[in-house]
Amino acid sequence: MDSNSVKSLLALQEIDTKIQEISEKIKFLPKSIETLHKEKESASIHFEQLNKKLKELDFIKKEKELNIQDLNSRISNVEKALEKVRTNDEYKNLLREKARAEESILELEDEILSIMEEMEQLKKTIQIKEKEKEKELTRIDEKIRKLENEERELSLTLSELQKEREELVKLLKPQEYSQYENIKKRVKTKPIAIVQDATCTGCYMIIPPKVFSELLKTEKMLSCPNCGRYLYYDNK
Ligand SMILES: [Zn+2]
Predict the structure, then answer these.
(1) How far is the CA of 193 from the centre of ligand 1 (A)?
(2) pTM of the prediction?
(3) Alpha-carbon gap, residue 154 to 159, rounded angstroms
């Protein structure tokens, strides 16, 4: 192996490291974006629940108002009946019925009043929450946009690196490249280990003196007898 091949292999390893880093980052981006979309949804759902509660209160209020209408027409019926009353008992019963209806109306009016107070309170809360929700949605949208941009940029960089890699692979002898790939598949990390203090930085085993002295003499790439990685010793 000549020194050009060594340089190309080192450059290939550098590109592969970058490709792996970028691929890792890209892999997690869609999930992060999805999480943000869910955050948006739950912010809206919480807000809609308040509006739903307001509608429910309004419905209950209208029902009570209808009840009052019914009671009022019952009272006017009683009043009409009172004009035609014949017996004392009948008269007493009608008066009692009228009094009961009037009492019910008072109760209903009280209830309506407290519902209206609750609705006012809720409307104020909704106003505040709506502003908060808008802010929150804008904040999340910005985050989403940022991540989507990042995704686009990383994809571009990735395809550039892949083109660069293809060109680089053309410079290598097929056997060198396939050996590089085989080591990569096996060690799952960098196939070329830098030698430091006569140690392979891939597996942290001391290189046998015979192999090490050969490393010092040659520009060739030798393999680590322990892990099989290409050994690179910068003896310049
Ligand atoms: Zn090793």
Answers:
(1) 7
(2) 0.69
(3) 9
